[in-house]
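fyi for ur records
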Amino acid sequence: MEAKLCKVPGCSNLAVARGMCRACYQRWWRAVNRSKTRKYSRLYREQLLDPDIEKERLKLWRRKHRPKRYLYNKKWRKNHRDKRNAQRWRNYQRGTIWAVNIGLPYDDFEKQMILDKTIVDSLGKVLKENVSDRELAAFLGRSVQAIQVKRHQLKKYKA
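which gave:
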């Protein structure tokens, strides 16, 4: 079987698709589908320029898929207790690098920060609100586990 040449006049390359070489086929395809490619590329550029469009799309996706993901994760945690406990232990170990105040008593200032989940400077000015336990542990020089245990104790004896 002999190789076919491109049917476009003036082109002597081997035919790949529809009797045309690769370059001629792409040129033909772009000409036929020009309106589609322009429309999609324009929409894509708008999304890049306006991140709110992408955020809105992501919110809708999360709202739709959240129940499925939650149930899947809940089932995994139930079936893999040992792995989940190992994850927790590793998380606590990561938080121990800041624990320079081990064994020192908590003052009232620190206790209030732990309860409110806020970071406050020495003058009483709130620097950050609704912080994670890891951030709070880094600021106070305690471990994540110590922060969580102290919060539990404070809530238990406060009630």
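The chain has two domains: 33-79, 86-158. thats all i got for now
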